[in-house]
Amino acid sequence: MDNFELDLLKLFLAPVAALIIPIVWNFASVPIAYLREKSMKKPSAVNINLDLNYTEHPELENARFKCLVVRYGTDEYIKSMANDQEKYDGRLRNDIIEIDHQKGRLDFVIPLHKRIGTQFKCFLEVESKEQAEKIVQNAKNFSGIYDLSLASSQHKNRVFFLLNDYGETTTVDGLKNNMIFPI
Predict the structure, then answer these.
(1) Residues 6+ apart with CB under 8 A from 118
(2) What is the sign of the dihedral through the CA atoms of 126, 130, 132 and 135?
(3) What is the pLDDT of residue 53?
(4) How far is residue 81's CA from residue 100's CA, in Å, rounded to a whole number?
(5) What is the per-residue DSSP string for 61-111?
(6) d(CA 39, CA 41)
(7) Among 4, 21, 29, 145, which is most buried by a count of CB atoms within 10 Å?
(8) Distance separating alpha carbons of residues 149 and 162, to the nearest angstrom
């Protein structure tokens, strides 16, 4: 092969390599990112006894308990100290987890970020706004939970609350959420 043929081959291979390398990189990076995300989170079981008296509070009978996973990490940490990957992990999630509840016992599994923890807030959904207001009025009668409040969003039939057994953090908007800190 003379120099002309070699130059022609290089001229042809350079654009082909420029196309193939990003494609290979993208295919390789997807499973790597997936494995990294799975390895940074582990399930954390939450088991709470609330001592709810359904005969005294019939509005709780058909309530559906749920948990809102707000984000990984605290707002203050994400804003001021997190690296780029932690900022990405700590983006707003607002994922909803169904909570199994049997006679006042709440059982659910929440994803715990191993490095920056998980911010969450539990709530219950009832049939109407009136039922939600009645639950908030009876807040002092419930043990294991505190800071009951009506939803300020379009979901007026939701009552948010904090769990006594978990840490608390305040968002940049002034809202309070529970926090499971990393281990």
Answers:
(1) 44, 69, 71, 72, 110, 111, 112, 179, 180
(2) negative
(3) 67
(4) 36
(5) TT-EEEEEEEEES-HHHHHHT--HHHHHHTS---EEEE-EEETTEEEEEEE
(6) 6
(7) 145
(8) 10
Tell me 60's DSSP state: G
Q: What is the pLDDT of residues 80-95, one digit of tens each?
A: 999 998 999 999 999 9
User: pLDDT at position 167, please?
Assistant: 94
Nearest to 156 by CA among 183, 180, 123, 182: 123
70-100 per-residue burial string, b: 16 or more CB within 10 A, e: under 16: bbbbbbebbeeebeeebeebbeebeeebebe
Amino acid at 131: Q
What residue type is 32 in one-letter code?
Answer: I
Token output for 111: 């994803």
End-to-end CA distance of the chain: 63
pLDDT of res. 118: 94
Task: Spell out the residues 6+ positions from residue 62 whose beta carbon is closer than 8 angstroms to its own.
Answer: 126, 127
pLDDT on residue 155? 83
d(C-alpha 175, C-alpha 55), whole Å: 32
**CA torsion angle for 79, 91, 169, 121 (degrees, to 10)?**
170
Please tell me the predicted confidence (pLDDT) of residue 121: 96
What pLDDT does 87 receive?
A: 93
